[in-house]
What does this fold into?
Amino acid sequence: MPYRGGVKLRIFVEPQQGATYEQLLVVAQTTEACGFDAFFRSDHYLAMGGDGLPGPTDAWVTLAGLARETSRIRLGTLVSAATFRWPGVLAISVAQVDAMSGGRVELGLGTGWYDGEHTAYGIPFPALGERFDRLEEQLAIVRGLWTTPAGETFSYSGTHYQLVDSPALPKPRQQPHPPLILGGFGAKRTPRLAAAYADEFNVPFHGAADTQAQFTRVREACAVIDRDPSGLTLSAAQVVCCGADDTEIAARAKAIGREVDELRANGVAGTPDEVVARLRELEAAGASTVYLQVLDLHDLDHLRLISERVLPELG
It folds into this structure.
């Protein structure tokens, strides 16, 4: 089923809370069958509450598998931590998954923020300023490796990373490169990096007014470097809890350990009509794409309800 148009809806999951590859595959294939635009996943190695059984799955290993077992939906991370992978290795991995998917991959990249997962798996976790420095260097390197013309080499001399005469291979399927997604709510450095490097900017888990304010900061940062902001996709991410009636809404909220009133206040929640209204608020704030954070991976009927009752209203 092709995507119907209008505000793009993407499904976004948090496998570190407990999911096998097989579960993720079923959700991704249901996402595709239901007509959503994309399936994205977080990139974390430790659960945030709960035991996280059976344990974490690696984001890019997962997406490589899904690349071969889906055919239409976009695939990506929201977002990978720059602390997890060397930028040259990341560029190779994403380019390979892009080829495996036939050119359907997108890379969300951020500073990394969850110190507990770094401690648990022996990953260095520098101070925030250094993490931003490393993120900026990684963005320059990944994009540089992907866009260096075939037959030429790429070198980079930064504070944290140095590359010398790299063949800058492999090239991704998408040209000039897979979309780069940045996000967050920082008022200064985040908009500047987005203006310089991002193809998409995402505001996660904020209301329409705050989302619009951050979009304005990013547009202003684009103006500073004479970039046309119309070429930058603006998106939002929200937890979703949709039900046909109050009973179903309450059951879905309980399944993810949340209260209905809190979800209505801080997410995209309620009946299909209420969900459509909230999505329209985000659209009015400037978001052309919304990532729906689905926390109960067993409830495939949730996806089907949104597909049948929400998607047709957004065209």
